[in-house]
Request: fold
Amino acid sequence: MPDLTLSLAAALVAAALFVWMAIVIWRDPTVVIRAEYARERALLGLQLHRVVIDGQRWAYVERAADTADAPTLVLLHGYTGSKENWYRLVAHLRGRYRIVIPDLPGWGQSERRLGTDHGYAAQAANVAAFICATSDTPVVLLGHSMGGGIAAVTAAQYPKQVARVGLLDASGVEFEQNQFGLDVLDGRNPFGVHDAASLERYLDILFQVRKARPPIPWPVSRIVIAQRRRDGDFEQSVLDCIGRSETRFLPGDLAARIRQPALLLWGKQDAVIDPSALDLYATRMPQAYKVLLDDCGHMSLMEHPDAVAQAVTALIERGQQR
Reply:
């Protein structure tokens, strides 16, 4: 016969834990997302770090290479993104290289200062300072979308910090018109999220491969929507700068000054930065080799991380392969 006292005690403990978790989530709903990110970091062997550089607080993750002399990769996320966007790629590169992935200032867990310039030039200066603080040698700098534009400016203006550069679906050139670009020029934010329908539309724009989308079940979807609502004004201010201001083509203007070995990689079905941008960058960076991935939207690093990893490895190990 089971011990009813022990069974009752176990039930009470379980109930107490449930109530405690409910209170924790009620006070800070984002704890659910942070817990999942912590789980993913642990599986990938990434360590979370925080550092203050020139008074700016950064959050970043790092994984050491298997050998001490391996190159360092610094990975820059895109608009509305965060360091976690790179985790699928890390799974294909870990061990071979030292990997450092920051949240850019204003995004993710890094400090956001309202009224601060978050445009290409300012962020490139931030990234150059970050590289100096976290690496003793020039790095392989990879950037996706907005992060690609920032990477281009960093490579052009701070060449001593960047040994090689990879631009993935990068912004910063006047690509062929698409609906996303027209919406931005009209002052709208196609990435804005304020309800379940706009969250679905946001994912539709980003991903060609539906199964590559990150799972966002309830109540996580509710948490994400609430956070994106709070971030709406900040997102719009950044988009106005990188998408509509007189400096929106700064990365493309400076690309001709990039002398390092380079990679240009795009998704063929990218509905955000039209693939015509690849050739626009290539005309200014003749040393770059080009990769165009079929059945791939804007989130190439998440949709086809294996192919992206192969291209990055080629950039590092063969440099100017065409």
Notes: The longest helix spans residues 4-27.
